[in-house]
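help with these tokens:
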Amino acid sequence: MDLPTLVATLSDPRPQDRAWAALATDHAVSERLIRAAEHPRAFDHACRTPPAHWPHPGEPHEALITAVCDRVDEFERLLNAALAAAELRDASFGPYLRVAFPSGLVEDGTASAEQACFARALTARDDVWDPARRAVFAAAGLPHDRDRWCAVRVPEVLDDRGRPTYSSASIVILPVDRHLRSNPRMYLGRERSDPRLLGALLDAIRRDGLRVDVEGPLRFAVTGGPDDPRPDPEDLVTGPMPWQPRLFGVRTAAAFSLGVTVHQWVDGIAYRQQFVDGMPVGPRETIGPADHEDGFHIVFELDQEWLPAGARLPG
């Protein structure tokens, strides 16, 4: 079931609970629901794209998240969706709290790797700890205390020399986009909150020999010619890290973006593909013959909800 079909099913004019209940009986479809929740803004976009019509109150992703959390109680299956919700500036992370910590906050050093990962994502956001968010935590029976959440950690295991050791039980393998967002310092030498982060991103792309044009506070374009790599749009935006070193900076930019539009010219034919929140809006479009040398032009709309308030591109 693709995203438009999923949206059409959930927009059924019948009572909402009947539509969701029908989906919940199929494991493959429930996995598709979880996948959609991992990209909440893409789900919202699909719900607002004609002929889709969302008849339920509130934001589409809010209904999706609530329904998923009502039907899936294994938090390890929901971690990536929970991390996506933690990046939003609303309270969408709330339903995941009770699934992640059904018996209360784990403060004794025995948290699972998934619980600790979610806790780190929440403590990294200043807006989560605004007093207005206290009721979100209270609804899940959890404290709204940043220091206590910072204490959520996996068990420490020492080797025979007293050194910390690591096992698969204490490590979470994240998708590429989530890994890049969680560890920008590893790739760019800057934390998410560092005002120099976006400058470091543009510098990394320029070092790859690609042209960068800043078009707005959070919008920029990257252009490559016939001697540059020919990226596959879906691999570039949704796939693993590219094997071509010259596309590392571009792949990182895609991970930091809410919207990406890839224009390509190959053998005299122009193509275009658009992405929202890491998901393709549709298949690659063939625009038609074009008197243009081979190359690409990629427009990035950086994700202002992930970035700190007031973040801007330099220049």
Notes: Residues 14-19 have pLDDT under 50 and may be disordered.
